[in-house]
Amino acid sequence: MQVVKIGLLGCCLLMAAGCATRGDIELLQQDLDEMKGRTIKVEKELGGVRSEAREGLETNLKGFQKDIDSLRKVTADLQVAVDASKVDVQVMGGKVDDFALQLKKPVDDLALLREDVDRKHAGIEKRLEKIEKSLDDLQKTATELRNREAEKTPDAIYQKGIDAYKAGDFAKSREQLSRFIELFPKHELIANAHYWLGETYYSEKVYDQAILEFEKVVKEFPNKGKAPAALLKQAMAFKELDDAKSARFVFKKLIENYPLADEVKVAKEKLKELK
């Protein structure tokens, strides 16, 4: 709106003075240069957002085709608005030249010319404000879509399961961990996912199911870091089921197979309790 204010101030000064001056033309030229700069800046930002929407969204957000189509329409509309602003700026450039030619004409003609230029100023100002707001909205939408897509990554799904476990929401934790196991069976965290799945059952005292999950870690991923922990919790689950014989067997297996594991100390203490 600063441009409009400047234009109106210039008009008042002209009418008060009775004729146009070189200072009026210079002031208008400054307004025009500023408007050109803003238009170029907005066009560059639009190009960047359009490129990001095209390259990033079309590659990673296949599941949001409707949103992508909407983004394309918005960017197309913005481009039309930018082009219209560029035309108006060019027209204003011609008006500045007209001022120079009209210096010797009557004051009424100059006042009409100034009013015409002021209207152009106001129109461009409103259009640019609308474009800038639309660009902000477009960037926010693109960010939201990227975040929604990021939630589908293996690490995101796994972390949701862990976070739910820590929050005590074991059902939700199982849902996310089971989804992770189903979708990414070859992922490097697959052993951990089985282990924490067993922990959800253990925490709810569903010990028989916990034993089965811990067994998957021990049997399928014996060289993974969670194998000793899985054996320890499996033995503890047997103990909770009053199956001392199986618990003792698993504790000994942990001590023999992973003598350097941190869980060995706990296993030895638990063995003493069984005697």
Can you characterise this structure?
By secondary structure, the protein is mostly helical. The protein folds into 2 domains: 2-150; 154-274, Tetratricopeptide repeat domain (Serine Threonine Protein Phosphatase 5, Tetratricopeptide repeat, Alpha Horseshoe), CATH 1.25.40.10. It has 11 helices and no strands. It has helices at residues 2-17, 22-60, 65-102, 107-150, 154-166, 170-183, 190-203, 207-220, 227-240, 244-257, 263-274.
How would you concisely characterize the structure shown here?
The chain is mostly helical. It has two domains: 2-150; 154-274, Serine Threonine Protein Phosphatase 5, Tetratricopeptide repeat (Alpha Horseshoe), CATH 1.25.40.
Number of domains: 2
- Portion of residues within helices: over 70%
Biggest sheet statistics: none
DSSP strand tally: 0
Unreliable stretches (pLDDT < 50, length at least 5) are 1-20
Q: State the helix count.
A: 11
Which outline best applies?
Answer: rod-shaped
The rounded Rg comes to 36 Å
Helix-strand category = mainly alpha
**H and E order:** HHHHHHHHHHH
| Strand content range | under 5%
Distance between the termini: 86 Å
> Kindly state the mean pLDDT as a whole number?
76
